[in-house]
Amino acid sequence: MPKRFAEVNESYCVSCGACMSVCPKGAIKIVKGCYAFVDRNFCVGCGICARTCPAGAIEVKAHEVA
Ligand code: SF4
Ligand code: SF4
User: Closest Cα to atom 6, ligand 2: which residue?
Assistant: First the structure.
């Protein structure tokens, strides 16, 4: 079954933390102060982070999961 997850384009991310603040699942952390990291164990693919990101760095994509 495909599942939807947020993916961060590290080249675009400016580490503002906006996505982390709005994620209802607490799935996003800022890694080493340099980019946002999405924990797929918590992400439900709602897309709120992608709509919030001022840099357009997040896309929600479908992935096949075992
Ligand atoms: S898609 Fe939703 S649950 Fe997943 S990281 Fe973004 S805001 Fe959080
Ligand atoms: S909102 Fe966008 S630019 Fe800001 S930390 Fe998240 S992914 Fe990076």
Answer: 19
